[in-house]
Structures are given as C-alpha cells and as structure tokens.
Amino acid sequence: MSERQNIEWKQSWHDDYLKWICGFANAQGGTIYIGKDDDGNVTHLDNYQKLLEDLPNKIRNAMGIICDVNLQEESGSKYIEIKVQPYSVPVSLRGRYYYRSGSTKMELTGVELNEFLLKKAGKTWDDVIEERASINDIDTNSLEQFIQDGLKYGRMPDVDGLSTFQILEKLNLIEKGQLKRAAIILFAKDPNKFYPSIQVRIGRFVKDSTDLRFHEILEGNLVYLLKEVQAQLNYKFLTKRIEFEGMRRLEKDEYPIVALREMLLNALVHRSYMGAHTQMRVYDDRISLWNVGKLPNELTEADLLKPHSSLPRNPIIAHACFLAGYIDTWGSGTLKIIEACKKEGLPEPVIKEMQGGMEVTMFKLGASEQATQQVTQQVTQQVTQQVTQQVQTLLEAIGTELNRKDLQEKLGLADRENFRANYLQPALELGLVEMTIPDKPKSSKQKYRLTEKGKDLKQTLK
Predict the structure, then answer these.
(1) Second CATH level (architecture) for the domain 7-108
(2) Integer angstrom CA distances of residue 346 from 164, 278, 366, 462
(3) What is the greatest pairwise CA distance in the chain?
(4) Helices then strands, each counted (H, E), the chain
(5) Average pLDDT for consecutive 10-residue bins of the chain (462 residues)?
(6) For 323, which of 29, 151, 152, 298 is 20 to 30 Å away at the CA?
(7) How many CB atoms are located within 10 Å of the residue 370 CB?
C-alpha cells in the first residue's frame, strides 16, 4: 500500500499534521498512519497510549469533527491509524481551509477558497442569485442572437412565444424569480456594473510584452464579446496573408478561425469571474490569450493535449453555451485548437498554466523556431518566480537520478520532514522533478530526477 490520494504516513506525531486531517475531511477522506516511515515500514510508537487519549480531543477541539483513532500492531510494533471521513460541509483549522489534492496538502485562499465554499454548499459561482439584478438588465438583442445561434445546431429548447423571463427560466438562469450570475455574464446590458472584470483587452505588441503599439478594451456580455473580439481582431489587429493559385489572388487568415474562436470561448466560459480581465496579446509572429482561473485539481497541462473529461468551472454558463452550439461538453476545446493549427501547417500551440490562470499561444505560419523557443523561455521565467530558494537549491543538486537519502546528504539536510516539505514536495508539485517509479511513490528503490521542465529551469537559473 503506497502513499496516495487518501493515504499518508508519518513517523511520529506533530500538531501540524492536523492540516492533513483537515485536507482529508474537505476532500475525499483518507487515513493517516502515525508510526510508519516514508517506505511504509512500521517504526513503533513509544507514546502510543498518550496519543490514543490526546488525538481525538485535539481533532475535535481544533476542527469540530470526529475521527476514528485506532491502535494497530505489526510484528510487535505499535502504530496508530487515524481514519478521516469526507465532510459535506467545509472544515477549517483555526480559520484556515486545507484540501487534499493527489498526494499533497494545499491551503485554499482567495478565489480557490471561494469556489470551494460554494461547492460545499452545492453551488458554483455562476449558479448564485444576483440580487442586485432585474429582468430590465437583460439585453434582449443578445438573447435573440443566442437563440438564433442555438437553432442552427438543433440543441435549443422550444422557446417560441415565450417571454424573456420564461426563456431565461427554461435555460436554468433564474431561481426563485431572480437572475443568476450566469444570466448576467451571458446577456446583461452592462455586466461590468455587477462584476468589474468583464473585459477583453487586446494589445498589439512589437518584439516583447513591454513594447505596446496600441490596444482596445472591449466590455459586454459573453454573446457580445464572442462576436466583437473576433471583429476587432480582423479589423485592426490581424492581416490576411496572400497566396496565389495561378493568376487568382487568395487571402487567407493568419490564424485558423476555429482555433481563435476556441481560444476565446475557453477564456470566456471557463475563466474565474472573480479575478482580472481577459488579456489578448498580438505580436508580429504569434498571438496569446490569458484568462484568470487555474485548472481543476483533477486536470493537468498534459491532460489538455489529449482527450479528457469536461470539468467546467461555470457549468451553468457552459450548458447555455452548449445549447447555443458555441461549445461541446467533451473537453475537446484545446484539442480543436491543436488540430486546427496542425491542419494549417502552423507550429504547435503552447498551452500553459501560469500566474493563476491559463494561457494559449499560437504561432504564425513561418514563425521561426527561435520565436517558439522565446515564448517557452518566457513561460519558464514566469515559473521561476514561483520557485522558492529551497527548490532552486534542489534543482542544482540533482545531476543524475538520486534517492532521498543521497539528496539529503548532498544538500546537508538532516531533517527528513524539512527536506520533504520544503524541497522535494514543492518541486514535484511544480513538475520540475519526477519519480523514477511513479506508480510506487514510497518504494525503497525510489529515485528522483529532473523533468524536461526542470532541466530548462535549471539552465535558466544558471
């Protein structure tokens, strides 16, 4: 049995491990074994009797939850099992919230905390009633455009003869006679009156991100932005490339329309509306789009490059956009971008999680390999800002595959828990270091090596 999503081993007890219990309670539950080393071997607890008496009270007093604390024995050695059940309500430890993701514990703050608390209440951000809004805030022209788009795909329910209120009700955008936030995002006359970051800012840059030539700020609901952003790109920011077939002159788009549309839809549908505005940067050789909102815990960057499940941050907005034919519900948005670029012979796009959000970058036909490498380097530098000095030290220490003991000795660290919490685990979470035996994390033969991302960062640091 290895350490994983719902299993944690600790050689001895420290009150700091209450955070792990809190994380299990807020996620899928789990078990912490006190008296086992990193390889899962029982090390025996001399103070097991006192822990059996103290731990239930510590847990109840700190978090208000009840856990099973059981004494176990193996070959005459005692260890303790703490079984944590998942809780349907949010559990806090001294006012802080923790969550178990994979084999790591993380503290929830800001937007992530807000979304977590809503999820525990059976809600998502877009499913909440906006008490300040009324039906008069809805732009009927945008709603009509939305309906016409949906009728083309045959997904739209029958709304013929219904009032604006009845249509929104049928689209699940009204609750208890009041508009939901999703209705504001999709159809409001002025959504910025309610949420000030409902903007798409487009900038034309030369050479690098600091050399701005001109820009446009577009404000409006999702239906409006979906149409207007593409119009502004064609009118002011992008040019047509010219090709000839015999004597016939052909104008072709710099970037596939399908890919641009998917980039924009991903940003508008899946972004966090509690954060910054959406930003689009147009360069001589590439175009990038960034929106605030990290990937769900269940997805990684690598998952976006292959078929994956659809896990929308805003499911009410996403469902409405599905009915209108704007998106599918199969997690295929990023794949459409990749395939569209491939079909046009463009370089492979770069899709990265960065600065609390997601960025997609597409390159022009004929964009040099140097330009592609430059963008990759910029992303690497942005990742560097998230790397602590301890992690940088660890990267410098890893030349070949090394086990935990050798790494600790090389770094001059005697405390295993300090090494694991401040050096190894953050490097693993950032994707800079990987295990040689990933399916057996606590194998006695386990070693660690740099990933390609880690190697690139190490070279950058030099």
Answers:
(1) 2-Layer Sandwich (3.30)
(2) 44, 24, 8, 32
(3) 91
(4) 16, 19
(5) 70 92 93 86 89 94 95 92 94 93 80 87 93 96 94 89 95 96 96 92 83 92 95 88 63 87 94 90 93 84 84 93 88 90 92 88 74 53 64 87 89 84 84 82 85 78 68
(6) 298
(7) 8
Q: How far apart are CA 445 and CA 244, in angstroms?
A: 62
Q: Cα separations (Å) of 399 from 190, 391, 402, 406, 430?
A: 56, 14, 8, 12, 18
**Residue 292: beta bridge partners?**
357
Q: Please identify, in words, the CATH class of the domain defined by 389-461.
A: mainly alpha
pTM: 0.70
Residue ranges matching CATH 3.30.950.30 in the chain: 7-108
7-10 and 30-34 as β-strands: parallel, antiparallel, unpaired? Answer: parallel
Residue intervals of the chain classified under CATH 1.10.10.10 are 389-461
The DSSP 8-state label assigned to residue 132 in this structure reads T
Strand partners, 245: 248
CA–CA gap between residue 192 and residue 199 (Å, rounded): 8
Q: Which two tokens stand for residue 372?
A: 């592609």
CA angle at 18 for the pair 13 and 19, rounded to the nearest 5°? 125
Q: How far apart are CA 444 and CA 132, in angstroms?
A: 59
Closest CA to 267 of 364, 183, 185, 168: 185
CA 249/CA 49 separation, integer angstroms: 86
Q: Which two tokens stand for residue 331?
A: 């997690």
The fold adopted by the segment(s) 199-381 is Heat Shock Protein 90 (3.30.565)
Question: Looking at this protein, which amino acid is placed at residue 422?
Answer: N
Q: For residue 232, give the nearest of 195, 199, 267 by alpha carbon.
A: 199
In the block, residue with structure tokens 């994956």: 308
* Number of Cβ within a 10 Å radius of residue 118: 16
Separation between Cα atoms, residue 462 and residue 460, nearest integer Å? 5
